[in-house]
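Fill in residues.
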């Protein structure tokens, strides 16, 4: 089993959420939250700030920890065939933008980042991380946990 620890940014302003359009090496495109893998010896809070800057060009501060999502992606549902199942642990933070200018990630996987009205999110091909992050931001559960988001249709791992 592979293990991935990642930190994700949930930024909601004026009824819109900041989304990143990720382009995978196989050309697959998915809307997701800004964020990514926690590097060796890196604090997840530092990860989310770094990832927002890298992927969007925006500078952010963390307002609060929203919660943690832990899910196992079966081997058959991984994007790269032949890989073992993946245990993804995602740490979600509510962030606030304090500067910068929106732009694509230079030489990276993020083709564009956009402010998307929340009602339009349901019509996008997106990662389950988007739904998890929005649920955490909207409900702020005391345990920091929301029910798993079913994958299928427009929602992917």
């Amino acid at each position: 089993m592979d293990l991935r620890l990642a930190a994700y940014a949930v930024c909601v302003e004026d009824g819109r959420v900041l989304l990143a359009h990720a382009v995978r090496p196989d050309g697959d495109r998915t809307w997701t939250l800004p964020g990514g893998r926690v590097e060796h010896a890196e604090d997840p809070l530092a990860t989310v700030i770094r990832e927002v800057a890298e992927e969007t060009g925006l500078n952010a501060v963390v307002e609060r920890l929203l919660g943690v999502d832990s899910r196992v992606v079966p081997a058959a549902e991984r994007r790269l065939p032949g890989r073992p199942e993946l245990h993804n642990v995602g740490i979600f933070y509510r962030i606030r933008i304090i500067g910068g200018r929106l732009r694509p990630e230079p030489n990276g996987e993020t083709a564009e980042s956009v402010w998307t009205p929340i009602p339009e999110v349901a019509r996008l091909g997106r990662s389950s991380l988007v739904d998890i992050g929005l649920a955490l931001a909207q409900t702020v559960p005391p345990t920091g946990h929301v029910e798993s988001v079913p994958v299928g249709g427009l929602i992917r791992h």
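The helical segments are 44-56, 118-121, 128-139.
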